[in-house]
Amino acid sequence: MIDHFEIKVSAFTECVDFYTRVLAPLGIECKWQDEFAAGYGLASESNTRFLIEQSDAIQRVHIAFVAASEESVKAFYACGIQYGYEGHGAPGLRPEYSANYYAAYLYDPDGNNIEAVVYV
Prior knowledge:
The protein is an alpha/beta fold. The protein is built from two helices and eight strands. The strands form two sheets. The chain has a four-stranded mixed beta sheet with strand order 1-4-3-2, covered by helices on one side. A four-stranded mixed beta sheet has the order 5-8-7-6, with helices on one face. A hairpin with a 7-residue loop joins β6 and β7. α1 packs antiparallel against α2.
């Protein structure tokens, strides 16, 4: 349903590091970067699906990225914690959303709530 989406970030360099690191366990890589923007997509395809752009005007968002397995959700969260990013919910089932909703949450350097989720 969505071809791509973009968010504005103020801590651009720090956000590039964050997304490049924590999205890797989900099979998502940085496809291109210049001094003001970066584009990410699935490692298995050439398309850019998620973009970040340097901006002074930001609005916090919640983004949920699809994970392939519980193990990749755990790897996403562990990677974030390893690099010193703030956790916002350790890996686990979230029955308040659905009986099979398995997710973990991290804050990016701008305070955006970034999630990895798989339905088990």
